[in-house]
Specification:
The structure is a single chain. The chain has 371 residues and is an all-alpha fold. It folds into 2 domains: 267 residues, no CATH class; 93 residues, no CATH class. The chain has 11 helices and 2 strands. A two-stranded antiparallel sheet has the order 1-2. Helix 3 packs parallel to helix 7, helix 5 packs parallel to helix 8 and helix 10 crosses helix 11.
Length: 371
Amino acid sequence: MVVAAHPALAQQDGSVLTTLENSVTTAAKGWQTTVMQAAKSLFWILAGIEVGIAAVWLAIQTATLDAWFAEMVRRIMFIGFFAFVLDQGFTFAKAVVDSLYQIGAGGGSASPADVFNAGLKVASAMSQNAQFGLFQDNALAIASVFAMVIVVIAFSLVAAIFVAVMVEMYVGLLAGMIMLGLGGSSFTKDFAIRYLVYAFSVGMKLMALVMIAKIGSDALLNLANQTGTGNDAFVGTLAIGGISVVVFIISIYVPNIVQGVVQGVSVGSGMEVVKHAGQMASFAAGSASLAMGGARAGAAGFSSARADGASFGAAALKAMTQGIGTAGGALASAARDQAIGAPGSFGTSTLGLANAKLDQRRSQQRSTGKT
């Protein structure tokens, strides 16, 4: 008898993310008229001050009629250009962002919901290996379950980053329209130019994130559909979980670095990536060790149940319950010890403490068995 874990992941979707994105977009657009009116008022006030200052300087210098005419032409061209930028700035900025977004999507479609659904598809493909039974690879099944959880969490976080960038784009472009009003004066025109630079930078950030999400999801889907058997399947399952974490880490840093390059600022160093990569590597190693501990507990439970005369199905169910329960209990106990500051928990990670508790429990069981 085989106990299989085949969750109906394909029936789930990330439509709630699309709904959230549309709600934020609609709410932000409600402020467009208000912000534009304020920007226009600011622009023409600064333009009047600009013309007044120019007239005062010309009067002080007792300029000729030709100088007055030349200065008037320069001011009209300056104010006219930035008035055009004020009127069409948001449309132009949105067009730039949309163009870069389509470049990142490769001419297809990409959205936070698509990223979330990609994680569910990868987990659904991996669920084919989550089969528990006497003649099944129970260690592979447990590893598949843990990897499925890691993949879904990692892609959910990438989708959350995607939503955050989309919200930043809409809110930033709409609220930033007030900067276009500063183009009415030669002393503050740089703020209006920075708005256009920001539009290009957030478009590049969005393009990088879309490329990372699409490349990562396609690569993981191919790996999930091409997992072999035996040791290759076990290693491939762990690799999928690890790569999903790598995609998440890259999604955090690379888009911000690309945006910083456009804006001419440094947003971080490679050592931050190395530090967090090391933390995630420790997390992956601890998770794998905890999964193996749970697998050993499940195997022991299966053997004990069979020795007591239980059927294959009952023994497999007991193995799965005992394996997951042992690992989950150790993890919960470790989290509790760290929360209350129990002796021996200071300076340790939750997964490391959970693995130590599993080792201690196995040692106690061996000692009890010998006596």
